[in-house]
Amino acid sequence: MTTRGRFITVEGGEGTGKSTLIRSLAEALEADGNSLLVTREPGGTPLAEEVRALVLSPPENEHWSALAEALLINAARADHVEKKILPALKAGEWVLCDRFADSTLVYQGAGGVSEDVLLAMQAEVTRKARPDLTLVLDGPVDKLLGRRAQRGTSDVFEARPNSFHEEVRAGFLKIAEREPGRCVIIDALQTPAAMLKDARRAVRERLVAA
Fold it and tell me: What is the pTM of this model?
């Protein structure tokens, strides 16, 4: 009987260094001998990637309501979970995902959708794909603003005012406080090497030693 793989998600606001950490953590996990699937949300499957483009970069002068965003993202997630995440976990692979259900709860929650509605969607869509470990990258919004500007790319969420990003940060910290058994907060103002060290420690203590 194949042992179920481990599911790790990386969450955080804009400019927290998720992409950099995911690349280095993926290399470390593979070097440890783990079969690994690296994926992202919204996205991860051809259909979900189409939804990603619609949500993050809608046609000029058009915009989605927060509820419409939540519905679209959860539609993409349903496809992602069914076709990619669950099959990988059942095959014994480790899955490392850039954003997952917590991001929807936080971002669309900050947009005005009630937590009850978002949690109901989450329960239906994620099914058995509950993360074993979530790394929450955190840092002051004003200090991360420069990183966002340096990237030279923007989407509908990055372009929103700092007050929105402050609410997003508070939302992630609230989830981490509510679920300490799953979530580990990592200081996003550290060097990439220090962030990787913290992430590897969390994996070792929460998953490998479990």
Answer: 0.94
Domain count, the chain: 1
- The answer to whether position 1 is within a domain reads no
Could you state, in chain order, the average pLDDT of each consecutive group of 10 residues for the chain (210 residues)? 88 95 98 96 98 94 95 98 97 98 98 97 93 97 76 73 94 98 97 98 86
CB count, 10 Å around CB of 127?
A: 13
In three-state secondary structure terms, 98 is strand
What range does the domain containing 20 cover?
7-208
What's the CATH code of the domain at 83? 3.40.50.300
CB 99 within 8 A of CB 21: no
- In the chain, % helix, strand, coil (3-state, to 5) comes to 55, 15, 30
Single-letter residue type at 102: D
Tokens 């095959």 sit at which residue? 91
Domain membership of residue 149 (yes or no) is yes
Cα atoms found within 13 Å of the Cα of residue 28, Cβ hemisphere only: 18
